[in-house]
Amino acid sequence: MFSIAIRYLCGWASAASHKKEEPEWPPHPDRVFMALVATWAETEANEAERRSLLFLQQLPEPYLSVSPDFELHAAISVFQRNSDVEERVPVPVYVPTPISDDELRKGRKSKDLLKVLPSERKRDKRHFPAVIPESDTVYLIWPDVELPAEHRAALERLCAKVGYLGDTSSLVQMWVEDNPPPPTLVPTDERHYSCRLRVFRTLDELKADYERDQEAGEYRPRTFKWGYYREPEEEKAPTPSSHFAELLILRRTAGPTLDITDALWLAKTLRDAALSLWEQRIGPPVPEWLSGHTPAGERSRRENGHLAFVALPNVGHEHADGELKGVALAVPQDVTKDEQTLLLDALFPWNKQTGEARPLELTLGRLGVWRLEQETRSFPRMITLRKPVWLGPAERWATVTPIVLDRYPKKDEREAEEMVVAACERIGLPRPREVVLMPGSLFIGAPPANRFPPLPKKFGKTVDQHTHALLIFDQPVRGPILLGAGRYRGYGLCRPWRSGGEQ
Amino acid sequence: MNSLTLDRLKEIVSGNAAALRRVVELQPAGGPGAKVFPPTYEGGKYATEKRRIKGETVDCVLLDSVQSQANRMELALQEAVEEKRISLPVITVDFSGTEASFIGRVTSLEAPHRIADAILRDSEWNDGTGTKLPFRKTPAGAALDAASLQNATALFEYCPTALVFGMWDSTGARGGLGVKFPRAIVSEIIGIGAVPGQRTGGRLDPLQIALKAGPVYETEDGDWTLDQARAKREKDKSGNEKLVLYGNKGRPSEINHGNVTPSLVVQKDKNGNPLDKSGAPTKRADEWIPIGGFTIDRAEQITVISLPTLRRLRFPVNGNNDADAAARVALTALALCAATLSGEKGYNLRSQCDLYIPSGVPEWEILGRNETFVLSADDAVKLFNQAVEDAKNAGLPWNSAGMKLTPRADLVEMVLRSRAVGVEEQDEEEA
């Protein structure tokens, strides 16, 4: 095993993703490789160093150890009127722009010419997006590769010569590390399940790009190689978890504003769309794990339950307003990756030519259409769309949408608490040590239980017993946690609760 | 406490240390917990962030950005050059003999793009024989076309600060592909434990003029009067003549007298209407966005000098690279000098944002070597001047006399015309 370590010396990492005002985090392996190649070319173009680069480029994609949590550096909160959300964005900086010969010659009549003076210089809006990660050091790790002795010295020398990564203000120290921490992101073939990062191109490709730019006299767009990364599986194993294993998050990119109390309706709409798209694009029958019904039309008795449809609201922070930002599919543990991929391919058909998935359009009656894309960005800016926010693990969990009890409790609160305990056990969780029922949610932005519409029931029953709850387990457990009678339809959604407030 | 000698600096630069880093603890001039006013960005907002400090998440606010710190360091160097404390090549464009003499002079330490700036490009140099050469045809200007990381000798000679603060020759013949030198020093100041404050505006009138002292009338010549006989008269809609009140309501406050009721300072649009977070005017006071600075526990200035960035530069002299080490040491000393001199000037960042160092001379860490040193401004100056001597002895050129340029006649003419146009347009706006 060996790794390349990168320490951000100012405590923050500044590099723009393909959207100029958004930061790139984690630093993409290709960015690191490019920095090494540039260092090689800009210093002596040493032969031993070149061979070490050739050795690197033929390695498999590296594992990464990187802080999943970060804060934006020097950011402001802005209100996006079109999507009605408040977001943190890097501050726009106005920098003096160069004045070209052309501008000077042409613009004689304009008062802008005075702007050649430093104090009057025209300024253009620029973003220098940067993140402050929890830990300032990142590792690119090859767990199954030994660094051959012949390349070690050259690679160490090359690393030591890299001064910055991304923007020139993003100063780093780089070195070869033989004892890196365990990876937090591992490469995967499953494009649906994680984030998309640029991975190493070859030295020849980079040289060809450079020569083409020199010839053209300008920088040209280029094609990158993309790799997919997910959290390592090992991490989940020792933590007790519900029988929902995976949470696939879909981000709303367009469409009307919906409130958290529309969760039930939105989940039903998504379920209907999923069933019909499966029939259309994969072909009947719709599997039991997806529909929740046996081929004979009876209610499914699968041990691990079936697919749950969850609406994801913006809750739990100062500016939370309970607006739905996206949806998620909670996948039972025994549904294989292949089966999940079939479903995702049905929802988001892959366009081979562009290498992109087509968005899913969810018709919401007269309200319009929600356009959904799978959240595969490395770290979504919107907290609601980050997986760890819903998965934990954590000891304390609290409801965001209320739990629907199986029946109206006849005796007292203890009976209701017992029903919630049973609901936990039903989805494979250990018994919680404590259950506290309450009419309101602990999360800012989530309304009281009685504001949520009742679950439609068979046999004309309309009385619904909705309750919010706080669950405390003896040990951290992993989500997604969906409890109660409405768990497949967006109710009983829980989120880790950290005492004294949100993360 | 270790101080830094030239020999030690040579060891550090030629060794494998990654960087020199200094964290300066600062306090608001008003003492701990006093209010400071950070720079505002688009929409009158402050740049805030959360940092992990000793395991805790702490609210922080940006007090001075990387770009702003670089400008402050360059100005500190400019001052030191003028005081003759240091010897540093600077290129100056002197407008004083021209009709645009009001501009004074612009140096490569002030021009936004350093030696690659358009002002320098459009100036001329008298080569001593009476011939005027455009800057880019002079040895210094032409050096930009040939400069690269492998050959930074000419830049070292004429504008070494470009190698420390970074430079991109994007206005030259090669446009966007012009030579780029990454910055080697990064500094910024953040306020830690930042709590947004609320500022109130108000005024107590020493004359105690009361509202009842009015109404104030407007006179025919636009002045004000209390005398109804002198007041301007107008006809209202129904044709009756009436006296014209000064301003909207003829209050004493409209001629800047009387008390002003204290009120919250909030974000407002052009017409003075308070705005909500979406940028729309609102009358609801609970939606107004306060502008009121921050109280902070303390501030921190973090300065990092990247040694690999400087080690990447090469300085061939007469075809050999024997002087590389001496040049890199001189540039590192220049960066140290810029950081310490700027610190010596104090931390008066802007109005209502004064900071000071509560105690002692801050330490520099040598990252990768687990060592520290302290460096006062005087020592930094001494070290730098020694390092320059050393570089010169190694054969490196150092144009400490600097270069004096005069603006091209076209440039002066353009400035004059622009100024005239500017004044005219301003008149139109006022009319």
What does this protein structure show overall?
The complex is a heterodimer of chains A (about 500) and B (about 425). Chain A has about 500 residues and is α+β, with helices and mostly antiparallel strands. Chain A is about 20% helix and about 25% strand. Chain A has helices spanning about 30-40, 45-55, 100-105, 150-160, 205-215, 265-280, 290, 335-345, 385-390, 415-425; strands at about 1-10, 15, 65, 70, 75-80, 85-90, 90-95, 125, 130-135, 135-140, 170-175, 185-190, 195-200, 225-230, 245-255, 310-315, 325-330, 350, 355, 360-365, 370-375, 395-400, 405, 435-440, 465-475, 495. Chain A has a five-stranded antiparallel beta sheet with strand order 16-17-15-21-20. In chain A, a hairpin with a 4-residue loop joins strand 5 and strand 6 (about 85-90). Chain A is globular and about 80 Å long. The relative contact order of chain A is 0.13. Chain B is globular, with a radius of gyration of 28 Å. In chain B, the strands form eight sheets. In chain B, strands 1, 5, 6, 13, 22, 23, 24, 25 and 26 form a nine-stranded antiparallel beta sheet that branches. A five-stranded mixed beta sheet of chain B has the order 8-7-27-9-10. With about 425 residues, chain B is an alpha+beta fold. Chain B has helices spanning about 5-15, 65-80, 120, 140-145, 155-160, 160-165, 305-310, 325-345, 375-395, 410-430; strands spanning about 20-30, 35, 40, 45, 50-55, 55-65, 90-95, 105, 125, 130-135, 165-170, 180, 185-190, 195, 200-205, 215-220, 225, 235, 240-245, 260-265, 295, 300-305, 345-350, 355, 365, 370-375, 405. The relative contact order of chain B is 0.21. In chain B, helix 1 packs across helix 8 (about 325-345), helix 2 (about 65-80) packs across helix 8 and helix 8 (about 325-345) packs antiparallel against helix 9. Helix content of chain B is about 25%, strand content about 25%. Chain B is built from ten helices and 27 strands. In chain B, strand 23 (about 345-350) and strand 24 form a beta hairpin. Mean pLDDT of chain B is about 85; it is low at about 425-430. Chains A and B meet through strand 5 and strand 7 of A and strand 4, strand 5, strand 22, helix 7 and helix 10 of B.
